[in-house]
Amino acid sequence: MSFREKSAWIMLIMIVLMTSLWTAHMPWRPLTLAPDPNPIVFHGLILATVGFVVIVVVAHIVIAVLAPRDANARADERERLIGLKATRIGAYVYAALSLSSIFIIHLGANEIGLAYFLLYSFAIAEAVNYAARVVYYRRGVGA
Amino acid sequence: MSQTTITNSIRRLRFERNEMTQQDLAERVGVTRQTINAIELGKYSPSLEVAFRIAVAFGVRLEDVFSYDAGNAR
């Protein structure tokens, strides 16, 4: 498994894990359309973000130390193609979800609900992006 | 699996060259070992430039490495 495939697995697992953990520890239902401001949720978001960055950086250092030649190699044409195709899929998902935010406003969402909807949209789009990379690395990628 | 209509003889050519490893070939071509493996298994069709570099690495013509199955082409 190449460094970039390992990296894609790390990012996918961490995005799903940290988003799920943050959601699970919210004191109220996260998909409420009109939540009240709650500092606990905001602090949890900061903790989840910092935790995400720290764990991702450490994990990348570990896989780079285990296979330094792989880690230092420049992305070749197949890896660049996988990155481009997966990013495109993720961008479509983010565009569709963020544009659909207009509907949740009409369903009664307030500004906090809208902000969290956009945050979840970003997390889902990035998870799809990295899941697509993993699939392309595992199953192959066409032109 | 996204198999291509392009087949190749990379495995045989490596065998004929004293079991050249995928890593050796990858270094000569300038791609990762995983990309050589993907090409060998038909999971990825390389660019024309990389295809030529593989042929040069083996010291053979391009058509000795790759062949195109027009019957299976859509």
How would you characterize this protein structure?
- The complex is a heterodimer of chains A (143) and B (74).
- Chain A is an all-alpha fold and 143 residues long.
- Helix content of chain A is 79%, strand content 0%.
- In chain A, helix 1 runs antiparallel to helix 2 (39-66), helix 1 (3-24) runs antiparallel to helix 6 and helix 4 (77-99) runs antiparallel to helix 6.
- The longest helix of chain A is centred in the C-terminal third of the chain and has 29 residues, at 111-139.
- Chain B is mostly helical and 74 residues long.
- Chain B has one domain (6-72): Orthogonal Bundle (434 Repressor (Amino-terminal Domain)).
- Helix content of chain B is 51%, strand content 8%.
- Chain B is built from five helices and two strands; from the N terminus they run βαααααβ.
- The longest helix of chain B is centred in the last third of the chain and has 11 residues, at 48-58.
- Chain B starts with 5 loop residues before the first strand and ends in a 6-residue tail after the last strand.
- The model of chain B has no long low-confidence stretch (mean pLDDT 87).
- The chains are: A mainly alpha (143), B mainly alpha (74).
- The interface between A and B is medium-sized, with 15 and 19 residues.
Oligomer: heterodimer
Q: Helices and strands of chain B: which structural class?
A: mainly alpha
The number of distinct β-strands of chain B equals 2
What are the secondary-structure elements of chain A, in order, as H or E?
HHHHHH
> How many E-type strands of chain A?
0
User: Largest interface, by Cβ-Cβ below 8 angstroms: which chains and how many residues each?
Assistant: A-B, 15 and 19 residues
Biggest pleated sheet of chain B: 2 strands, antiparallel
CATH topology of chain B: 434 Repressor (Amino-terminal Domain)
What is the CATH domain class of chain B?
Mainly Alpha
- Total of DSSP H or I helical runs spanning 4+ residues of chain B: 5
Layout of strands and helices, then pairs:
The complex is a heterodimer of chains A (143) and B (74).
Chain A: H1 3-24, H2 39-66, H3 68-72, H4 77-99, H5 101-106, H6 111-139
Helix pairs in contact in A: 1-2, 1-6, 4-6
Chain B: E1 6-8, H1 10-16, H2 22-29, H3 33-40, H4 48-58, H5 62-65, E2 66-68
Helix pairs in contact in B: 2-3
